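Two folds, back to back.
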Amino acid sequence: VQLVESGGGLAQPGGSLRLSCAASGFTFSSADMSWARQGPGKEREFVAAISWSGREEYYADSVKGRFTISRDNAKNTVYLQMNRLKLEDTAVYYCYIGADWGQGTQVTVSS
């Protein structure tokens, strides 16, 4: 299993970023996928998940209404669209499936 995140960077409060996670080594189109994050000095926390079909989505309360998870099974990629970013969204963002995690991508929200 290989998961490679990209798209992180610096954004201003209220701004947007789109994260991508390219997956390989397993049958992506059959797999539920998830995003998590770990902020400075914080525990790693669940952010969002999407079913294999894309028909079901789940969000942490802290991001509901601001973040959108999606997937493209033809590209073996899962996305996290992050809008109306807040300072507290600063974290390393990871995609994962089961016990397999990517290396993470840093998102920094700062004015």
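---
second:
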Amino acid sequence: VQFVESGGGLVQPGGSLRLSCAASGFTFSAFAMTWYRQAPGKGRNWVAFISSSAGSTNYADSVKGRFTISRDNTKNMVYLQMNSLKPEDTAVYYCNRPSVLDSWGQGTQVTVSS
């Protein structure tokens, strides 16, 4: 099982980024997926959840209304569209299967700063 996250970068407050996660090594369409993030000096927390069929999504209160999770089961990809970014969104972002919690990928760094 492998996850490869990409799309992070440096963005000004109020800006947008779209993160991507390429998953492999399992039947992607059978599993829900979750984006997590870990800010400097803090633990890893979930950010957004999507069910296996994309019929259900859920968001942490801190990102609700600003972030959108989606997936493409034909490409084994999960995405996180992040709008209206705030400095407190600065973190390394990871994807994983919430029901299994496989080994973590390298993550992608998001820095929100002016």
